[in-house]
Amino acid sequence: MLFMFELLRNHRKKAAALLLIVMPFLLMATSAGASIGEKRSPGPVQWMQRGVGMAQYGGHRTVGGLGSLWNRLTAGDVVEENERLREEIARLRDEKSRLIGVLQENARLREMVGLQTRHPEYNLVAAVVTGRDISPYFRVMTIKVRSEAKLEPRMPVIAAGGVVGLVHRVYGDFADVIVLSDPRSRVDAISQRSRTQGVVQGLGHERDYYAKISYLLQKDELRVGDVMVTSGMGGIFPKELIIGTVSQIESSERGLFQEAQIEPAVDFSRLEEVFVLVGTR
Amino acid sequence: MPAVVTWLVCFVFLVGESVLLTTFGIESFSLQLGIGITIFLGLRREFVSGALTLAALLPVIEWLVSGPMGFYSLGLVVVFLVLRGLVESIQRRWGMAQMVMAMFLALLHSGVMLFALLLTNPSSMILQSILWNMWLGSVIVGVSMIPLGRFLDRADRMLNPRSGRNVLEIM
Fold first, then answer.
1. What is the pLDDT of residue A54?
2. Does the pLDDT value for residue B36 go beyond 90?
3. In this complex, which of A12, A28, A132 lies closest to B22 when CB atoms are compared?
4. Residue A167's closest chain B neighbor by CA?
5. Is the confidence metric ipTM above 0.90 for this complex?
6. What secondary structure does DSSP assign to chain A, as a single string?
7. How many CB pairs under 8 A join A and B?
């Protein structure tokens, strides 16, 4: 042991460089690679991941609070007005802003309740979006579930508007969700009108959240405006969940397949609450 | 700043970036602070301290990036090692030169990711995503590097007023 310490002390630079170089390969070796759905990490790693999740959640709540504080500060910045009136206006604005927030949340929750009513067979668990990935290459969101439900990798995540994505990694109450437009995402889809089948793949580029439909045969009839829904063939998503609308078709003279671009039904940039589909009744 | 404090400050920055991207819903305009932090560690820390701090940050960065594990880190490690090789010939002030350097290093980072993914997942759509986003991404890294570097330098000076001011200080 003493010899090891001595060795490390004498070769600090080499040891640090070695650790740094080994680290990425260690991470690669202990993960699922580019596929979706990571196994649960060992206990200590879960705790560390949960710590990161808690920090994101705390930050999410703080930023929300700072936002309303900023509103309060900027609302009362009229020099000419009487001090009492300013305070009154600021208070009323604050109340109004909070009321609008509550009304918007109410509307979202109503939509979600509507989703549950439309699909009583689904066992849905509500979750709040707390963070996003910090690279421009992927489309991942961190969610925090609001119940004791146990999440598993590859569980479908939906919103009132339609499909959101798949659970990738679970740590405690938190989970990373691979969004439909992430380049790793693939969902079997079918056109609601013509029953044309294809695979919706995330692009991770162009207009932020767009995806494309691949493996469409040249003879398949698809039109701009067609609504694509889940086909249920992948065995993960149930049938007939709305994915999005065809926005552009790119058929080529050569090759077996044509491609189409799809605009997801859900606006991922504004998502605040989602549902995880933990099973069917 | 001691290594632990540096780690904590960087952790707050990384989590803060994730939270802000959620608040504004602008994922493709990510600042990629992981690259900026690596550049700071490469330029302003002694090799062992910088390497150990970065090694401790890599898992956190990977969890927050949520990509295929290890590839983003590999890019950061290459950026750090390249920077350590060049550190003597890079000026200290955070300005235009540092901005351009950060842009090139962000492109190098993307290049390393592309190469590693090409070897392991050649048919992946991730390659397209990186090729599409790396250009704007590098510009954003370059622009965000100046305030980030200046802030971290200031934080360094708050805890250690001699930091960065003594020409005889060992880099």
1. 84
2. yes
3. A132
4. B66
5. no
6. -HHHHHHHHHTHHHHHHHHHHHHHHHHHHTS-TTSS-PPPPPHHHHHHHHHHHHHHHHHHHHHHHHHHHHHHHHHT--SSS-HHHHHHHHHHHHHHHHHHHHHHHHHHHHHHHHHHHH-TTEEEEEEEEEEE-SSSS--EEEEEESSSPPP-TT-EEEETTEEEEEEEEEETTEEEEEETTSTT-EEEEEETTT--EEEEEE-SSSSTT-EEEEEEETT----TTPEEEE-S-SSSSPTT-EEEEEEEEE--SSSSEEEEEEEESS-GGG--EEEEEEEE-
7. 194
